Amino acid sequence: xxxxxxxxxxxxxxxxxxxxxxxxxFLVLHVRRNHLVSDALRELTVYSDVDLKxxxxxIFDGEEAVDAGGVTKEFFLLLLKELMDPIYGMFTQYSESNxxxxxxx
Length: 105
What we know:
Elements: H1 5-23, E1 27-31, H2 36-44, E2 56-60, H3 70-83, E3 91-94, E4 99-102
Parallel strand pairs: 1-2
Antiparallel strand pairs: 3-4
Domain HECT: 48-105
Protein name: HECT-type E3 ubiquitin transferase
Pathway: Protein modification; protein ubiquitination
């Protein structure tokens, strides 16, 4: 049976991170700046419902910034900017008002 790289990563994360997740008072997301959406979605699949209620801390891979709130704020700004990109089709921009709204597609 072939195992994809993403599935192998998820299994590895569960085996190595499970004990740490139970003790960490924060939900910690490790994301790459150039893959925000896919990394965030992949990371969130590892956590339980209880973990998803914890305060969020974000770590950008390869960066040493400590998240005292600024990194998380930057993460959401970048994530929303990316989600509004027409390639995802989540939002529509109305030319007459420049309003962005959820796409009906």
